[in-house]
């Protein structure tokens, strides 16, 4: 089912500062992209073997806002794995007892592809995203 690690997401208190730091290290850094449905603004840092998603709260009630309240310096928020077919991935997760967050319906993620999130309590304490490639 899993094909590739797509990205590691890091919640950051200052998106511009974090992006500039990675850029100064020679990484390719995207422009910020607002994702109102997810309550975040993201920047992607691309390196040869993966990507890093820098996330910052967007709007009131952002889940990243609560994360940063608990972790004021920021921190790793989730891992994202690529899957061939998101519906099959959702079925497989449920079959093995993993809860899919939200209503279980895929939403479009930062790459404009369908995504689902698995409950961290069902994944060794890590929030895991699955993205259809």
What do you see in this structure?
The protein is of the alpha+beta class and 133 residues long. The protein has a single domain, classed as 2,3-Dihydroxybiphenyl 1,2-Dioxygenase, domain 1. It is built from three helices and nine strands; from the N terminus they run E-H-E-E-E-E-H-E-H-E-E-E. Strands 1, 2, 3, 4, 5, 6, 7, 8 and 9 form a nine-stranded mixed beta sheet that branches. Strand 3 and strand 4 form a beta hairpin. The longest helix is centred in the N-terminal third of the chain and has 10 residues, at 15-24. It is globular. The N and C termini lie close together (12 Å). The model has no long low-confidence stretch (mean pLDDT 95).
Short description:
This protein is of the alpha+beta class and 133 residues long. The protein has helices at 15-24, 63-70, 86-95; strands spanning 2-11, 28-29, 33-35, 40-47, 50-57, 75-83, 107-108, 114-118, 128-132.
Write the layout of secondary structure elements.
Elements: E1 2-11, H1 15-24, E2 28-29, E3 33-35, E4 40-47, E5 50-57, H2 63-70, E6 75-83, H3 86-95, E7 107-108, E8 114-118, E9 128-132
Parallel strand pairs: 1-5, 6-9
Antiparallel strand pairs: 1-6, 2-4, 3-4, 4-5, 7-8, 8-9
Which terms summarize this structure?
133 residues; alpha+beta; 2,3-Dihydroxybiphenyl 1,2-Dioxygenase, domain 1; 9-stranded mixed β-sheet; 21% helix; 39% strand
Q: State Rg.
A: 15 Å
Number of strands: 9
Strand coverage percent? 35-45%
- Write down the CATH topology: 2,3-Dihydroxybiphenyl 1,2-Dioxygenase, domain 1
Q: What's the structural domain tally?
A: 1
- Return the CATH architecture: Roll
Overall shape: it is: globular
Largest sheet: 9 strands, mixed
User: Would you identify the regions where 5 or more consecutive residues have pLDDT less than 50?
Assistant: none
Q: Whole-number average pLDDT?
A: 95
Q: Secondary-structure element order, as H and E?
A: EHEEEEHEHEEE
CATH superfamily: 2,3-Dihydroxybiphenyl 1,2-Dioxygenase, domain 1
Helix content: 10-25%
What is the CATH top level name?
Answer: Alpha Beta
Q: What's the helix count?
A: 3
N/C terminus separation: 12 Å
Structural class: alpha+beta
